[in-house]
Design goal:
Elements lengths: L3 E2 L18 E3 L5 E2 L8 H16 L2 E5 L6 E3 L14 H16 L1 E9 L5 E6 L5 E5 L6 E5 L2 E3 L4 E5 L12 H4 L1 H19 L6 E4 L6 H15 L13 E4 L4 H4 L1 H14 L5 H4 L10 H28 L6 E5 L9 H11 L9 H7 L23
């Protein structure tokens, strides 16, 4: 029996080519893991949201030329309102990152071009509406959005986890279905435990013979007396209440839930579990938090930035390209930021100016701040 279930019956486009859909998967825990259920794992959903928020808030600029010839240029329409709906760049990029975080793929349809043929509007598409495959006759990649065939030249596609022989990226939900399934099962168990109880809270016993209707009346009277009431319950007929003690295994389910939540957050990248409050192992200190943040930005966020830069730059006319301002990622670390500025300003080998530093801090330039310090210059002696 296959572990995969298609979201809808397989279709074939003109030319009879097989579509390639992102499947749901039945995890060993028994939970069905799909793009619809996986966001229900709080840690996983929160990590994807945090990643999308960090990337979408970063400043982005457009350049031409490299090295000494590099110079900034005005942003094209694609970097101002890529979706063409008035929501702007950050909103569009956040949606793209959400798709990439859950599905491993970002797909957009180029709906408008400028006078030079450069894409001006790229409408993001829900991956549930995307079908893609290779034509059996010529091996060419074919795309469908909904029921409509779309020319490959009108498709923008970014893959986070490409796999040889496949057009679409592997979905992290599919790849880590076992971990997400365990997290879903743990949350479902917790919901049942605190909602209806995993087992009865106690037993009402008596040495007397009690008819079924009388037993039901005693049970009802006990529930009514104890629900939202601190008054003592009088049961009569020698009835005693004995609470049921939960087993050590059952009492450990919160610890299990904490562990599986941390694992689910780590699917998105290193550092997310700790930042979101799911530390496992040593207690978090200020130094640990600082290092964790650096790891998150370096190993989880930067790979996305590099792929986005390369993919979006291919939509622009050569030699234009985009660059994210990675310096903004370190704005939260004041000490590291100012230490870096001190190094950049010299005094031995300065490579920036005071006004360039002030611009990074959103400060107004000063009249004397455009000249680089003289190499090897010593501060003037104090009178």
């Amino acid at each position: 029996m296959s572990l995969f279930r298609r979201g809808r019956p397989e279709e074939r486009a003109s030319g009879a080519w097989p579509t390639q859909l992102i499947p749901s998967r039945l995890a060993p825990s028994g939970s069905l893991v799909s793009p619809d259920t996986a966001p229900g794992v709080v840690a996983f959903g929160a990590a994807v949201n945090l990643q999308a928020s960090i990337v979408s808030m970063l400043p982005v600029d457009c350049f031409t030329g490299f090295g000494a010839d590099q110079r900034p240029i005005a942003k094209p329409p694609l970097l101002l309102d890529p979706g063409g709906q008035g929501y702007g760049w950050s909103d569009w990029l956040y949606q793209a990152m959400i798709s990439g975080g859950y599905r491993g793929n970002i797909v957009g349809r180029i709906d408008a071009r400028d006078g030079r043929g450069t894409p001006a509007v790229v409408r993001l598409i829900d991956m549930a509406d995307v079908q893609v495959g290779r034509d059996a006759s010529d091996g060419a990649t074919r795309w469908k959005i909904g029921t409509a065939d779309v020319d490959r030249a009108s498709i923008w596609h970014l893959r986070r986890y490409p796999k040889p022989g496949h057009v679409l990226s592997v979905s992290p939900i599919e790849q880590y279905a076992t971990t997400l399934g365990l997290a879903l099962s743990s949350e479902e168990f917790g919901s049942q435990w605190f909602g209806d109880g995993a087992h009865p809270s106690g037993i009402l016993t008596t040495d007397q013979s009690v008819p079924q209707d009388a037993a039901a009346a005693i049970k009802k009277r006990f529930i009514e007396a104890t629900r939202n009431n601190r008054e003592p319950a009088v049961l009569g007929q020698g009835v005693k209440y004995t609470p049921i003690q939960i087993s050590p295994e059952e009492s450990q389910f919160l610890a299990t839930q904490q562990f599986t939540a941390a694992q689910a957050a780590r699917i998105v990248g290193p550092g997310f579990a700790e930042i979101l409050g799911y530390p496992v192992g040593d207690s978090m200190t200020y130094k640990n938090i600082e290092q964790t943040g650096i790891h998150l930005l370096t190993y989880a966020i930067d790979p996305w930035l590099t792929m986005l830069e390369e993919s979006i730059s291919r939509l622009l006319p050569r030699p234009q390209y985009i660059k994210f301002n990675r310096a903004a990622l370190l704005r939260t670390d004041l000490v590291a930021r100012y230490t870096a500025y001190r190094t950049a300003l010299g005094p031995t080998e300065p490579f920036t100016t005071v006004n360039e530093v002030r611009a990074l801090e959103d400060e107004r330039p000063v009249p004397w701040g455009d000249e680089k310090p003289v190499t090897g210059a010593q501060p003037a002696p104090q009178a």
